[in-house]
Amino acid sequence: MTAATFKLNNMAKIKNKLPVFVKKNFVIVITGLSLLIANSSPLISHEMWLDTSTYQQKIDAEVKLSLVNGQMFDGFELSYFKSRFSEFYYINNNKKVDIESRMGDTPAATLSFSNNGLVTGIYVSEKSTINYETLDKFSEFAVEKGEEWAIEKHSDLKFPKMNFKEDYYRFSKILIGVGNSQGSDIQAGIKHEIVALTNPYNRDSKDEFYVKLIFNDKPQKNRQINIFERDFEKNVTTQVTFTDDDGIAKFKVTEGNEYLIDNVIIEVNEDPKNDAVWSSYWAALTFRALDATQ
């Protein structure tokens, strides 16, 4: 756990012990702090994902949806702050429903669903910008996410070796099973997207899990897919795989464990009105693996 994560988790615990009339102002303080930390340079290599304690729920029962920033599938919740949310919605039975939350809400949303099916929750961020003081930090990030080509390109294009900027965008999805949990994830049409080709709540434990990576509406071949697996005791392991020529990757999943699937694409920033030299696009998909045959 990072120092930032520890501080925010402790502040959340303090908030829960405060009298009701104090909590409202405290929410504003912790929201502001979470935004400050989320925009700071050390967290650019951190993932951002949608999370819940109830990946599978009964009809009309409550589902709390959290937006989390961290590493190794462990982090702190970000409060709902509209200026950072470009899009926030879910898709159920091919119907898109915008999620309405109040400023400072933690978790970011509390939902319920009135019919069976597989629900896809989606968060798209507004643009954020990081300033790299040295090339080393950018290089570490590029290597970690399988985008090593950007290091040589940085030199070829004679970009600054110190104090340069990168814009970044987040595209996070979560799969929630409601009732019988039947259905399929869909390609939602967001810029960067991991689409589950397997329903995690209606699968055979012998089967591998398939995902498809989409960027600008096109399948992405030979791209690195990072897989974070979290068990019942919150232990996290990682593995890496790559997409094939059709943009599809497959991997084994373990019954009952939770998964964060992650991919990052880096591009040269071609916007002449923008002083950032790089843009990065982060796709995330979360779910729990369950076996429908049991």
Written account of the structure:
The chain is α+β, with helices and mostly antiparallel strands and 294 residues long. It has one domain (3-288). It has helices spanning 3-17, 20-38, 135-144, 149-156, and strands at residues 47-51, 56-57, 63-71, 74-78, 85-92, 95-98, 109-111, 117-125, 128-132, 164-178, 192-196, 209-215, 218-219, 224-230, 236-242, 248-251, 258-268, 278-288. The strands form three sheets. Strands 2, 5, 6, 8, 9, 10, 14, 15, 17 and 18 form a ten-stranded mixed beta sheet that branches. Strands 1, 3, 4 and 7 form a four-stranded antiparallel beta sheet that branches. Strands 11, 12, 13 and 16 form a four-stranded antiparallel beta sheet that branches.
Q: What is the secondary structure topology, with strand pairs?
A:
Elements: H1 3-17, H2 20-38, E1 47-51, E2 56-57, E3 63-71, E4 74-78, E5 85-92, E6 95-98, E7 109-111, E8 117-125, E9 128-132, H3 135-144, H4 149-156, E10 164-178, E11 192-196, E12 209-215, E13 218-219, E14 224-230, E15 236-242, E16 248-251, E17 258-268, E18 278-288
Parallel strand pairs: 2-10, 10-18
Antiparallel strand pairs: 1-3, 3-4, 3-7, 5-6, 5-8, 8-10, 9-10, 11-12, 12-13, 12-16, 14-15, 14-17, 17-18
Helix pairs in contact: 1-2
